[in-house]
TrEMBL record:
InterPro entries the record matches: AB_hydrolase_fold
Organism of derivation: Daphnia magna
Top-level taxon in the UniProt lineage: Eukaryota
Name the record gives this protein: Gastric triacylglycerol lipase
């Protein structure tokens, strides 16, 4: 990977570490929009105290999931949970690099080989 370890540490400072376990645990049970707190939720979500779960049946386009094994924000079990919920999942693909993580999707210097080529190979022909 072409990433600097210090970059990861700096980026993670933006996410409160105390929230990371909640996000992971919650994602295995449901997948919901941002929770603004009960008062703002009432306004934002049509009188609901909590955000409503996403309705995966509304996703009708083909879906390909690419994920990394070393992700601090999403674990493979959460990816499998999501894959199970999607009705039009075509494929769930683990990026073929043991240290690939969330930030590598944007910043890895070898994405052209380990991510973009596999994505492009799955696109339908434009002909």
């Amino acid at each position: 990977m072409g990433l600097n370890v210090n970059f990861h540490a700096q980026e993670l400072q933006f996410a409160r570490r105390s929230n990371l376990p909640k996000i992971t645990t919650q994602a295995r049970q449901t997948f919901i929009p941002y929770n603004y707190g009960w008062l703002r939720n009432l306004q934002k979500y049509g009188g609901r105290l909590t955000p409503p779960p996403y309705d995966f049946s509304k996703i009708t386009c083909p879906v390909y999931i690419f994920y990394g094994e070393n992700d601090l924000l999403t674990v493979p079990q959460d990816v499998a949970w999501l894959a199970d919920k999607l009705g039009n999942l075509k494929e769930s693909i683990r990026v073929d690099h043991a240290l690939y993580n969330h930030f590598d999707f944007l910043w890895a210097t070898d994405n052209n080989v380990i991510l973009y080529d596999p994505i492009i190979s799955r696109l339908p022909s434009a002909v």
